[in-house]
Design brief:
heterodimer; A: Alkaline Phosphatase, subunit A; 16 helices; 35 strands; B: alpha+beta; 47% helix
């Protein structure tokens, strides 16, 4: 897979051929073939078509190769769609239906992608808990990935940042985990914001903590939180302290970390800072990396600290295969974002970062990604290279339809990367996105709608609000509830703890709710809110439906489930304007938000779908599809 | 102290320069030879300052007690007595080793402090910012503190004055591989400090100080004259010594080689350790 640049390649080739002939892998006719697949999250076919002139490489690919709209999954959510790309299974096969699932017994929201379990056997000594067996980190995605199948047939593959691939699928291929990789705290990304600005009164915002510093201080101690200390009985959060000193008048400050100092000016980002979070003093610590943005020095401190990322040089959790591959990348490239979704949309949504500041951080993420992409491109010599870009998706959420010029800049940078991939000779190039984009104008509180339709009941009807996890729901009188961005679940007897809907009544109830959803109109403009309704029992061919919502709601363009719905809240109104910085989305009717599929050769398939991508890759390398894979080659 | 430090520095710099022919291998080669010489030197000091007869006697006893424990393994009483005696003999051995250790600790300690400038600090990486700090007597009142970097270096942020700590810090970025002198002008005092970026491992002074006591621990450059500035420091990254592809702190290699040399050459020097 790696070119060593030596001049003895004929000998190396002969040795490699002899080794391949003798190894246990099944070999294929595709030895020496090269294919690059670029996964560009959220690239929208209409946006691309509107800007062909500004995207010369995609335009060239369109002219010289081919371009199609790529049908997305039900629902059109990234972990769901990319899992279909990884495995060739539909959500009913790979078992991911949303970013968020629920535990049927408790109805608590849980991550759909991975589960971390503590060690089963432990020894308690004083305040410490000594593990006698390993804890586990388990991917919840089912099915064999296309790069595992390639590996089994002796085809080398490098797969960088494939979403929902945390922990990475076990194999000998080189891979780096993508979306779903947590920060060191175990969340999808929790920033910290330190301030003594009296105007800032919040202490918690979605995706971040706000820490209040003493007033009128030119020096302050920042307590940067790491992971909960699982080696202590009280699971106290580990932390490192940073002292920051401001110049009395100038907008500049010096940060003193335990082993390093750095100076940053107001409006600047620091380089990556590495910190060891002590779990047992002198014995065990975990390493994390973070960046600091000095937003303001005078008259008040305003300091943003990024989520603490898993240190790729000393990963505390498995983030690559082979396990030391992240260390290899770190040695070659320096520290890089390991957090699955690195763009700081949460701080922008919370009003802590401005649009300009968000864009600057986002450019850093893309620069980080392009650096790694070019490294992989330089070292790619045979087999498959898959590389994933998150920037268009995350920026589209914040810029779509309102700041198109800024968004186009991101598209242009990705287009430039496409050009670099096109320059690799004798290589098949496939480019896809998992979904497109649409405006998100109106937020739908699905639980409130269910309540108003009589399917969900509160203990006290006045207790509507933003309390999450169905805080005031009376489960003895609730037939259905919504969680995640597209899902409605029945409170089913025998499945949900204390469920009241008899399995015999399930189908009638589903049909009744579906009919009402399709009739649901926005009282403000009279428009239908929902375009399509899907039942998991019939929408999927796979039968791995244990955690599937019973109904998947295909919202009309412009509508989406509210943030409150995603975590089980029941606000007082059914619909409200989306006034947040997150102005666009794709968790709607899948027909409205298709992805893109480009190639440097012609397609035969007129209407390709996500599952066709892995089928095409395997077919190109002469590797048979695994049982249950649904797609067909597009050629 | 200045004269002593200058002499030690000059000798070490000459020694280090003698390995310039080895290019990037010069650092570990010179340190290896130096470690062997130190190992031999320690043997000589050990022979001259220790009671070799008493050491030989106590080592014989240690062997005897170990043998006793093996022979009388079925006799708990005898084993227990042998263990007690073994412990006492070991303590006696450590006592005998204490005298030569005391003779060695000062010169070896001084040598190690000096060697930090040769092996412990890596040159600054071009393009990567670094913090330069001046420690002051009292606050930085009066005219604003000034720092003029040499060619190839750039100040990339205004100075940070920290009254509580009596310090001023600058952020400096080496744009290319270069070396030269930083010129500080603070409270009417002008001083210089060497700065080094890029290139291979070499002598890199870390902190320049005024106080005689501090100069023991920071002997790389001549002491600062009395005035407003107590010390100046460039925060160099730590160097790692690469030996056959394995990277480690230079002190680890120094200890391994010097102890190994002492162990291997002890009979040739007629020393019982």
């Amino acid at each position: 897979m790696r070119s060593d640049g030596s001049g003895s390649w004929p000998l190396s080739l002969a040795i490699a051929a002899a080794l391949l002939a003798g190894c246990s892998h099944q070999t294929t006719h595709a030895a020496g073939k090269r294919m690059i697949v670029l996964g560009i999250d959220g690239m929208d076919p209409d946006f691309v078509a509107r800007h062909w002139d500004s995207l010369p490489n995609l335009n060239r690919l369109h002219q010289q190769g081919d371009f199609r709209r790529l049908a997305t999954t039900i629902p059109p959510q990234s972990p769901v769609a990319w899992s279909t790309v990884s495995t060739g299974l539909d959500p009913g096969g790979h078992g991911l239906f949303d970013f968020i699932h629920r535990n049927p017994a408790t109805r608590e929201p849980i991550s759909s992608m991975a589960e971390v379990s503590d060690p089963k056997n432990t020894l308690h000594i004083g305040p410490y808990v000594i593990p006698l067996s390993s804890g586990t980190v388990e991917s919840l995605r089912h099915g064999r990935t296309f790069w595992q199948l390639l590996g089994e047939h002796g085809i080398p593959a490098t797969v960088i940042r494939m979403p929902a691939n945390f922990p990475p699928a076990e194999c000998e291929q080189e891979s780096l985990a993508g979306m779903g990789t947590p920060d060191l705290n175990g969340s999808f990304g929790t920033f910290s914001f330190y301030t003594n600005d009296p105007a800032e009164t919040r202490s918690e915002v979605s995706g971040g903590h706000i820490i209040h510093l003493p007033p009128k201080s030119t020096s302050a101690v920042l307590r940067i939180e790491g992971p909960p200390n699982t080696l202590r009985k009280d699971r106290a959060v580990s932390y490192v302290s940073l002292t920051v000193h401001a110049d009395p008048t100038a907008a500049v400050a010096r940060f003193d970390a335990p082993e390093q100092q750095f100076v940053i000016r107001q409006g600047e980002w620091s380089d990556w800072q590495r910190a060891d979070f002590t779990l047992i003093p002198g014995i065990k610590s975990v390493s994390g990396i973070f960046r600091i943005y000095l937003q303001q020095v005078h008259p008040y401190w305003r300091i943003y600290v990024s989520p603490v990322n898993i240190d790729p040089g000393e990963p505390a959790l498995p983030i690559s295969t082979p396990a030391d591959y992240s260390r290899t990348l770190e040695t070659k490239l320096g520290p890089f974002y390991t957090q699955g979704i690195a763009e700081e949309t949460s701080a922008f949504r919370a009003g802590i970062l401005s649009k300009g500041e968000f864009l600057e951080q986002s450019r850093k993420v893309l620069a980080d990604s392009l650096r790694m992409f070019h490294y992989e491109l330089r070292h790619f010599s045979s087999g498959l290279l898959f590389y994933y870009f998150s920037s268009i998706d995350q920026n589209s959420h914040m810029l779509w339809g309102k700041y198109d010029d800024d968004l186009l800049d991101i598209y242009k940078q990705v287009d430039s990367a496409v050009g670099d991939a096109m320059a690799v000779p004798d290589t098949e190039l496939l480019i896809l996105s998992d979904h497109g984009f649409a405006r998100f104008d109106r937020a739908v509180h699905l639980n409130t709608w269910l309540m108003q339709q009589g399917y969900l009941t509160l203990d006290d009807p006045t207790k509507t609000g933003d309390d999450e996890e169905f805080a005031h729901v009376n489960w003895n009188r609730t037939e259905a509830y919504a969680l995640g961005l597209n899902g409605i679940y029945l409170n089913l007897y025998g499945r949900e703890n204390g469920g009241i809907v008899s399995p015999a009544d399930k189908e009638d109830l589903l049909n009744e709710i579906a009919q009402k959803l399709l009739e649901f109109r926005d009282p403000v403009n009279g428009e239908h809110v929902v375009d399509k309704v899907f039942f998991s029992s019939t929408a999927y061919r796979g039968k791995n439906l244990r955690l599937a919502p019973d109904i998947i709601v295909g919202f009309r363009r412009g509508y989406r489930a509210s943030w409150q719905t995603a975590l089980g809240a029941v606000p007082p109104v059914m619909l409200e304007d989306n006034n947040q910085a997150w102005i666009a989305d794709h968790c709607m009717n899948p027909d409205e938000v298709p992805g893109v599929l480009f190639c440097n050769r012609k397609f035969r398939a007129a209407h390709p779908q996500m599952a066709d991508v892995p089928a095409t890759i395997l077919s190109e390398f002469g590797v048979p599809l695994a049982p249950g894979m649904l797609g067909h080659t597009v050629f | 102290m200045d004269v002593f430090n200058a002499i030690v520095n000059a000798v070490l710099r000459a020694f280090f320069a003698a390995f310039s022919w080895a290019g990037t291998n010069g650092a570990w080669l010179s340190l290896t030879l130096l470690s062997v010489l130190v190992g031999v030197g320690m043997l000589w000091v050990f022979r001259k300052t220790s009671d070799q007869g008493a050491i030989r006697a106590v080592k014989r006893k240690v062997h005897a007690y170990l043998l006793e424990m093996r022979v009388y393994v079925d006799d708990p009483g005898a084993t227990w007595r042998a263990q007690n005696s073994l412990l006492k003999a070991n303590l006696r051995y450590m006592g005998l080793a204490l005298r030569p250790a005391l003779f060695m600790v000062v010169p070896v300690g001084i040598l190690l402090i000096h060697l930090e400038a040769f092996y412990g600090r890596a040159p600054l990486e071009p393009g990567r910012p670094v913090v330069v700090t001046a420690g002051l007597r009292g606050n930085a009142d009066g005219p604003p503190p000034e720092l003029v970097p040499p060619r190839g270096f750039e100040i990339s942020a205004p100075p940070v004055r920290i009254p509580d700590e009596h310090e001023v810090s600058w952020r400096i970025v080496p744009r290319v591989a270069a070396s030269g002198e930083l010129h500080f002008q603070i409270g009417g005092q002008s001083i210089t400090q060497d700065i080094v970026a890029g290139g291979g491992q070499r002598f890199i002074p870390g902190r320049r100080v005024h106080s005689a006591w501090d100069a023991i621990w920071h002997p790389d450059e001549s002491r600062l004259p009395a005035g407003k500035i107590e010390w100046v420091e460039v925060a160099y990254p730590s160097a790692s010594l690469g030996v056959f592809g394995i990277h480690m702190n230079w002190l680890v290699w120094f200890l391994i080689v010097s102890m190994l040399a002492a162990l291997l050459l002890r009979k040739r020097f007629g020393v019982t350790l």
